[in-house]
UniProtKB/TrEMBL annotation:
This is Ankyrin repeat. ANK repeats lie at residues 91-123. Signal peptide: none annotated. The keyword Endoplasmic reticulum does not apply. SMART domains: ANK (SM00248). It comes from Micromonospora auratinigra. The lineage of its organism: Bacteria, Bacillati, Actinomycetota, Actinomycetes, Micromonosporales. Keywords: ANK repeat, Repeat.
Amino acid sequence: MPDDVLRLAAADPLAVAVTGAIRQGDLVALRELLAAHPGLAVARIIDSGGMSRTLLHVATDWPGHLPDGVATVATLIAAGADVDARCTGPHRETPLHWAASCDDVDVLDALLDAGADIEAPGGVIAGGTPLADARAFAQWRAAHRLVARGARTTLVDAATLGLLDRVRQAFTATGAPPSDEIDAAFWGACHGGQQACAAYLADRGAQVNWVPPWENLTGLDAAARRGATALVAWLRERGGVSAAELPDPFRPEAG
């Protein structure tokens, strides 16, 4: 980050004013502030924890779908905002990561149209791409739009989104993927409510009751959360149980 970038505490009156204009979709006020304060378009707003974000991050922050979001993004980019700028802190996500995490497809398209890197790493999900964020947070419209716009898919991405042809390709291109990747993809298929992908992966060795390190849920739990009742029934037929029903490996045996 260049040393001459404007840095504003979140409570600074200018930060409060420009953040308010963005969140309210007040384009007149936003343009006036940008004109009156050169460098504001690339400014960093620093929160109390030391994390910094750009104005494009403000425009894509949760829950997204701000009034006139597309026009706001266009205004900021026209004023010099870096479409691929990263927040700083525990993660280094771009505005596209944030738009994907909010299922804000219109703003996502605006960022991509302005040249945002669709494969940008640094996401909260294992340092991954905007697509990894979207499918992990069940932001299905954004996930499918990213794929439609050319995002590369991992096996987990493909299984979660029900892209069975791509799942099959993962087993035919260079042989079977590693078993832990198959398990994660199976869990992803359950998370996405994708029974055909789950069945394909189960037939290729996926553990039906695998529990991921990031969430204490089996595939059955994930499918139930998704509301995929037919998939839940199918998992039960295959021996699927909830995490609460699994034996506790740390529980001493009675005796």
